[in-house]
Amino acid sequence: MSAIHPGRAAPPPAAPDPIEFKRVKAIFVGSIGNLVEWYDFYCYAAFSLYFSASFFPSSDPVAQSMSTAAIFALGFFIRPVGGLLFGYIGDRHGRRLALMLSVLLMCGGSLLIACSPTYASVGVWAPAILLIARLLQGLSLGGEYGSSATYLSEMATSKHRGFYSSFQYVTLIGGQLTALVVLLLLQNFFLSAAELKAWGWRIPFFIGAGLAVVALIMRSDLPETAAFKAQAKRNQGRTGGLRLLLQHPRECLIVIGLTMGGTLAFYVYTTYMQKFLKLSAGLTDAQTTAVSAGSLVFAALLQPLYGALSDRIGRKPLLLGFAILGTLFTVPLLTAIQHASGPWEAFGLIACAWLIVSGYTSINAVVKAELFPASIRATGVGVPYAIAVSVFGGSAEYIALWFKKAGNESGFYWYATAVIACTLLVYLLMRDTRRHSRIDAET
After folding, report:
1. In this structure, are residues 173 and 303 in contact, taking their beta carbons and an 8 Å threshold?
2. Quick count: other Cβ atoms within 10 Å of Cβ 207?
3. Domain holding 220: CATH number?
4. Does any domain span residue 426?
5. What is the CA radius of gyration of the chain?
6. Within a domain: 7
7. Which residues fall within 8 angstroms of residue 138, CB to CB, at 6 or more apart?
8. Which of 32, 291, 394, 409 has its CA 20 to 30 A from that of 122?
9. Which burial class, exposed, middle or buried, applies to 219 when counting CB atoms under 10 A from its CB (0-12, 13-18, 19+)?
10. pLDDT tens-digit map of 302-346
11. Would you say residue 418 lies in a domain?
12. For 279-298, what is the mean pLDDT?
């Protein structure tokens, strides 16, 4: 035990590490920009119940939902192009530039939706303009995922990479949550249902365009990652692009395989769940929004906990936990949610689902980043991920509504189970990227 000397001043507290502070600040700014992008993208899903009649006149609400879901899905199919374009920019010219350009493009897409004329004004041009806006947003988001996953993973230290990179999905979920909060405020405090359907649905898209400008300014001050700087000197322009990506076929197939079941589950419990609670579980608009928002808060809180756990036990155990439990419990959970007796029961069941799905969402970004070398990392993460999301994530809502319209809603539950089971096979065969990380190997 050290002696205490009267009159001797206690040693001053250690000064904060300026390098660590800059690292945390960069991760925070990168994450906030990600939140804005996903807010803009998910406003479409959150408000589609109100604006669908403005673009797709029909007496059948399910048919209207299918039309808006089809355009939602088409916004996903352009994402591989965005992944390739912005991945090339990120691998060749820097992660920061790719992040800035992606959020700028998202601003344009949101502003176009906010200003779009209705079907009553311009006829078939209205859904055409809506489609163009969604394609711009899909192109932007296709580049955002690979660039932000790469940036966060490279900025984080090896010891805490799972924890820090989990904030990509914290902000991704936060973007959707923010869209729902805006919807909740407009529903309950500012506008009537009739006003929301007439013109109020434009408000969140104007907000999103403004937030995107703020995110662009914040991202302009981001530092470039050390991993990019090192590989830029080492490779002298031999970075990015489809030709270099095709030299990593095994890694690309792993990304597609590990993504397909996870992204389908994610979109089931996020974008589709809002319609599922209203059209199938019979909740009111306000109850649907409240349950969706509450479950997203719970999901966001889980992400860093699971990410930190992966830093201790590895990535593979969490992925296996998701796939095994998802295969066993998707049908029982969705069936129970469909027959829930009220909003609290529905919330509890969705929370149980998030305890499973978070095994994928919390760490999928870092797993993909750890598979590729720095010279092709943004492209390698973004393109195969975007392909899997386009096929399995973007189509989830449309396929679910198709099963419902055909009178066999439970068929979608089994479809989701089968896709997750296929992903389980990939998890069983892949190595744990925490122990075999290309990021660590290069540093």
Report:
1. yes
2. 18
3. 1.20.1250.20
4. yes
5. 22
6. no
7. 74, 75, 76, 77, 78, 79, 82
8. 394
9. buried
10. 999 999 999 999 999 999 999 999 999 999 999 999 888 888 999
11. yes
12. 84
Q: What is the number of structural domains in the chain?
A: 1
Note the pLDDT tens digit of each residue in 89-145. 888 888 888 888 988 888 888 899 888 888 778 877 888 888 888 888 888 888 888
Asked if residue 5 belongs to a domain, the reply is no
Q: Which alpha helices (H) appear in 269-406, and where do they start and end?
A: 271-279, 285-313, 316-338, 343-361, 364-369, 377-388, 396-405
Q: 77 lies in which domain range?
A: 25-442
> Exposed e or buried b for every residue in 260-292, given b needs 16+ CB within 10 A?
bbbbbbbbbbbbbbbbbbbbbbebebebbbbbb
What is the structure's pLDDT at 2? Answer: 47
32, 171 contact by CB (below 8 A) = yes
Long-range pairs, 393-396, Cβ under 8 A, ≥24:
393/76, 393/263, 393/264, 393/266, 393/267, 394/72, 394/73, 394/74, 394/75, 394/76, 394/77, 394/79, 394/267, 395/73, 395/76, 396/264, 396/267, 396/268, 396/271, 396/272
Contact 72, 44 (CB under 8 A): yes
Q: Are 293 and 148 in contact (CB under 8 A)?
A: no
pLDDT attached to residue 60: 57
